[in-house]
Design a protein that fits this description.
111 residues; 4 helices
């Protein structure tokens, strides 16, 4: 759709004397907070056929990192609620620890 458009990104030293730079900075801060732009101000390439903003894909690395954090929290909670948790604490007082995770990572999947 927008194959003929070109985007040029250029660093500028300050907001002084550059038209639109301050507005662009404000929009970037809004985006970083998770705010969205007004639908009518978005270019057609960022709107669907109904005029609603399209969801931009997340980076693969950020998605993996978020998923690992969710899993880590879930496992920690499962261990905390486990009836065997006290036994784990006798073996490793910091359980679940990074040391345990590293040891467990090297175990074969099949026993």
């Amino acid at each position: 759709r927008d194959e003929d458009r070109k985007l040029i990104i250029q660093w500028s030293a300050s907001h002084i004397g550059i038209p639109g730079n301050k507005a662009a900075d404000e929009q970037a801060k809004c985006a970083a907070r998770g705010d969205i732009s007004e639908h009518t101000k978005l270019p057609p390439s960022l709107r669907d056929k109904n005029g609603n903003p399209t969801v931009l894909p997340h980076s693969k690395a950020a998605t993996k990192q978020a998923f690992r954090e969710i899993i880590k929290c879930q496992v920690t909670e499962m261990i905390r609620l486990s009836p065997r948790q006290e036994r784990f604490k006798e073996i490793d007082p910091l359980f679940p620890s990074k040391r345990f995770a590293n040891l467990a990572a090297n175990l074969p999947r099949r026993h």
